[in-house]
Design goal:
Elements: H1 3-8, H2 10-13, H3 19-27, E1 30-34, H4 40-50, E2 54-58, H5 83-94, E3 99-103, H6 109-118, E4 121-124, H7 129-142, E5 146-152, E6 155-161, H8 171-174, H9 185-188, H10 192-210, E7 219-224, E8 229-234
Parallel strand pairs: 1-2, 1-4, 2-3, 4-5
Antiparallel strand pairs: 5-6, 6-7, 7-8
Length: about 240
Amino acid sequence: MNKQQHNRYQRQIRLASIGEKGQQRLLDSRVLIIGLGGLGSPVALYLAAAGVGELVLSDYDVVEESNLQRQIIHTQASIGRLKVESAKERLLAINPELKISCLPHQLSADELQDQCSKADVVVDCIDNFPGRFLINKACVETQTPLVSGAAIKLEGQVTTFDSRLKTSPCYQCLYTDEGVEGATCEREGVVAPVVGVIGTMQAQEVINVLLGKSALTGTLMIFDAQYLDWQRITLLKNPVCPICH
């Protein structure tokens, strides 16, 4: 860590739970963020600011005006641009020392598995079940920790699946993929700060995982924005899960 980096991250280095060793670990880490929308925006912004050294951004969508209500990494000038390119520009404006790679296309199963295998942590910030099942499968096969978030209407949830641990459930232990058609923000709506709350929680949990101090492996946190209430639920591994049994 050079003098400039030490100065930039001094507020984190001062924490006994991070210190110089922990900050260097963040700088040496690679995180794959899948989805640069409502959840991916705060995830990417905070990980960039906190000094996670390499971010891989995956999203094949373009910015639309209706995104700007909650996708805070993008601006009015971003409309029509690929989300990954808009996000990259914003992140480098915050922290120009970052290494950022963009994947502006839908990942094939093989490419997804390859990218997961190269990452220290994968962050699921998408809004559809089929994609989440594919991400989960790739993370189980590559034994890559997965920090998963979701938000809809006035509710959100966040958890971590870590297949390196024999006792950790996976996403498919929580949800079956049989005929699932989940709600989306486009159809159901979502209040803007909810995705910010969940995305920020995801960012913190990514840092926790990178530092070997996960708070949510095997735990599902559910947020009710109307009453500002959190519920904490223990998740158990499904002994007959077709993915991680």
